[in-house]
Amino acid sequence: MTEKQATESWPWHWAPFEDEYWVGPFDSRELAIEAGKQEREDSGFYVAQAINAPIKLSDWIGADDLIERADESIFDSDRVSSEFDDIVFTATKAQQQDLAARVKRACDEWQEAHGLSFHASTFAEMTPPERITASERSA
């Protein structure tokens, strides 16, 4: 599959020249251009195809982060003494990998069970923007 074929199903968006926000999605390039024309009466704009795939919580959680956070938290409690206790939570590389796999699986199951779909305001991927000038708009 070529890169062009891979992006053909991505929705279209438009954005003013001077701003970074994008408006969309639209089902076609023509619909994005028409919307841009209506909104940007006196100036041009960009159009591009882009996707904003849902974000998986599990992609942003790691075992090393969990263990480090647990170490910090326990030393903030009165359960251990920072004077006499060493690192409390230690694990081998294999154990950390096992923990990471289990936590990721649990996060994915939790997210799916609750139908949660997290999205950022920025695109995951985008085609190079195409400039639509005022002269092209009237054509």
Describe the protein.
By secondary structure, the protein is of the alpha+beta class. The chain folds into two domains: 3-54 and 119-137, no CATH class; 57-113. It is built from five helices and five strands; from the N terminus they run H-E-E-H-E-H-H-E-E-H. Strands 1, 2, 3, 4 and 5 form a five-stranded antiparallel sheet that branches. Strand 1 and strand 2 (23-26) form a beta hairpin. The longest helix has 21 residues, at 93-113. It is elongated. The model has no long low-confidence stretch (mean pLDDT 84).
What is the N-to-C succession of helices and strands? Answer: HEEHEHHEEH
Overall, the morphology is elongated
Structural class: alpha+beta
Share of helix among residues?
Answer: 25-40%
How much strand? 15-25%
Mean pLDDT: 84
| Uncertain regions spanning at least 5 consecutive residues | none
- The domain count comes to 2
Number of helices: 5
Kindly report how far apart the N and C termini lie.
34 Å
Count all strands and give the number: 5
Largest sheet: 5 strands, antiparallel
